[in-house]
Write a structure and sequence with these properties.
The chain is an alpha/beta fold. It is about 35% helix and about 10% strand. The strands form four sheets. A six-stranded mixed β-sheet has the order 2-1-3-4-5-6, covered by helices on one side. Strands 12-13-14-15 form a four-stranded parallel β-sheet, covered by helices on one side. A three-stranded parallel β-sheet has the order 7-10-11, covered by helices on one side. Helix 16 links the parallel strand 14 and strand 15. Helix 14 runs parallel beside helix 16.
């Protein structure tokens, strides 16, 4: 790989692009705490790509961490590149302006490395679209020696076969240490005049968490292992987060307090793939929150983890943060609360957390179904927690439920309405009013590396009937105080078909993209008919793929890509079927 000349597009962007887009603040860069280096003086340049719009990308802490880490290394520059919205893409294609970075407005194809964060299967067409907008071939086999290395990481790297033909190298697992080691190897090999294939070969040989699809042979190569940050206490955190120019989806100080989850909900890929459980100390978390607040001025501090309420010193942590931030009118946000084992703490926690609305992921309305999914939440604990929340001053509640679980009946589905109604009624004890509850219902997508990954998704008609049952039951109970929001059923079917697919889906994804699929996570852009046609072109049926069941002895398309041992997951599945 030779040193490439970087072409900046600042003048063209200012003259021919920004005046013609609806939200130029998405594309101007230059925000407070942005890091901008002279690309021509760096040994290695990295474009950190997020396949969604600015407001979503700037809310994703993973890319902020990698951005800060790489820019902290002398001689390495990392810049941000996000997916342009449809109006901006139209201007770029019409005026032949290639996709560019926010910091230097450098053309995407001029970076040494292009790295994508993959957080959902429904972002894959945006990956292809960004490569194409950057003037690059979308297939790795068609890119020449002078093209940048295309790398991807994030949660979807653990089940990446459906997108394997487009990416040169995947990082499996956690990125903080892995990206630095990989970047240093690439920089060294690049200086020594190594070819792209020599770099890929060396990386695959040296690191057990590197997956190079073109080189992997299941009979010769061992199963890959997730990269794991062992010293989580001192894992890097950006102390000066970028302050967005336009309001992001989540605009707050975000501090990850714990990695991994002590629970093992049998549908949750993250709880099985992000292990072991590691915690930061209270002292460290408070120090990080203070530093980030003073560098940004954000008005909320959010404590992040898969299950924040399982943090062992939560009471002390919340008290310390409240003591420092309450006088500064900064609120605390505690997502992912569990109400079973931390019931006694809840009233105290709720007095110091900003009362915008309490969120509880109940998942299933009945205790038996919760046992099947390995979420042993008792009704009495749930009722006591919600009543405590009302007494502490909360007025709104948000509940998450999932439909399509093994062992589920029509009564279980209708019970979602009954349970929600009962929880709303608890407020009458406190102030005589009925609580207002927002309920989000999602449809089970069997995920790789989980016990339910062997099961087929329920048919589309099942979910449509479930939605009808819920709304009919709401009308029967005259529960106007319950507001239901349902995930898009077609999008969940596509997600199921994609998540457990093999490399044969690369053709389908490319075909769908060429037919116009992009921003599949957005209702206004998602077009299910395009995907149906793309599957059919290659002799496949999207519903059959979504509902596919795998045999216990079958070779799974993802089992070489990190994750727990098969035997362990099958034991969980067997336990769930016994409960059923």
């Amino acid at each position: 790989m030779e040193k490439r000349e970087v072409i900046t597009l600042a003048e063209r962007v200012d003259r021919d692009f920004l005046p013609f887009v609806r939200r130029p603040s998405r594309y101007i860069g230059g925000e407070i705490n942005q890091i901008k280096k002279d690309l021509s003086k760096c040994d290695l340049t990295v474009a950190l790509c997020f396949p969604d719009i600015y407001e979503v990308a700037m809310s994703y802490t993973g890319i902020a961490v990698i951005y800060d880490i790489l820019n902290g290394v002398d001689g390495i520059a990392a810049e941000r590149v996000f997916a342009p919205w449809v109006d901006a893409e139209e201007v770029m294609r019409r005026k032949k302006i290639p996709l560019f970075s926010l910091e230097s407005r450098a053309a995407l194809k001029d970076f040494d490395i292009i790295g994508f964060s993959l957080t959902s299967e429904l972002c894959y067409t945006n990956v292809l679209n960004m490569l194409d907008l950057g003037g690059l071939e979308i297939r790795s086999g068609l890119r020449d020696e002078n093209a940048p290395l295309i790398i991807a990481g994030g949660g979807m790297a653990n089940c990446c076969e459906p997108i394997a033909d487009f990416i040169d190298l995947f990082i499996i697992g956690e990125g903080e240490e892995a990206v630095v080691e990989l970047a240093q190897l690439i920089r060294t090999e690049k200086k020594a005049g190594a070819t792209k294939m020599e770099i890929l070969t060396e990386a695959a040989k040296k690191f057990g968490w590197v997956y190079v699809p073109t080189l992997y042979n299941s009979t010769e190569n061992p199963k890959l292992k997730n990269a794991v940050v062992k010293d989580f206490e001192n894992a890097p955190v950006p102390l000066r987060p970028i302050v967005p120019f336009t309001q992001a989806v989540h605009e707050r100080v975000s501090v990850e307090i714990m990695r991994g989850c002590p629970g093992r909900c049998r549908f949750c890929q993250a709880s099985f793939c992000r292990r072991p459980v590691r915690c930061r100390s209270v002292e460290k978390i408070v120090s990080l929150a203070k530093a980030c607040y003073h560098a940004t001025g954000f008005e909320t501090v959010s404590l992040l983890s898969l299950s924040t309420a399982d943090y062992p010193n939560l009471e002390e942590l919340v008290s310390r943060l409240h003591r420092y931030f309450s006088g500064r009118h900064v609120g605390l946000s505690l997502p992912s609360l569990r109400v079973d084992k931390h019931l006694k703490l809840l009233p105290k926690l709720l007095t110091v957390v900003r009362k915008g609305g309490l969120t509880i992921a109940v998942e299933a309305a009945g205790e038996k179904l919760r046992q099947i999914i390995n979420k042993p939440l008792k009704d009495e604990d749930l009722f006591a927690a919600v009543e405590a929340a009302y007494r502490a001053g909360w007025q709104r509640l948000k509940l998450y439920f999932m439909v399509g679980l093994p062992g589920e009946t029509a009564d279980d589905i209708k019970q979602i309405v009954e349970l929600s109604s009962q929880l709303a009624g608890l407020r009458k004890k406190i102030d005589g009013k009925t609580g207002q509850i927002n309920i989000t219902v999602s449809w089970l997508v069997p995920k790789p590396h989980t016990p339910f990954g062997w099961l087929g998704q329920k048919p589309k008609a099942y979910f449509e009937e479930a939605k009808r049952l819920i709304l009919d039951e709401k009308r029967r109970l005259r529960a106007r105080f319950l507001r239901f929001k349902f995930h898009d059923i077609s999008a969940s079917v596509l997600e199921s078909a994609m998540s457990r697919g093999d490399r044969g889906l690369c053709d389908v994804i490319e075909e769908a993209w060429r037919r116009g699929a992009k921003f599949d996570l957005w209702r206004e852009c998602f077009n299910y008919e395009i995907w149906q046609s793309a599957f059919e072109k290659f002799g496949m049926d999207i519903d059959t793929a979504a509902q596919r069941q795998f045999g216990h002895d079958e070779n799974l398309p993802w089992e070489h890509l990190g994750g727990p041992e098969k035997k362990y997951l099958l034991k969980h599945l067997d336990d769930a079927m016994k409960e059923k």
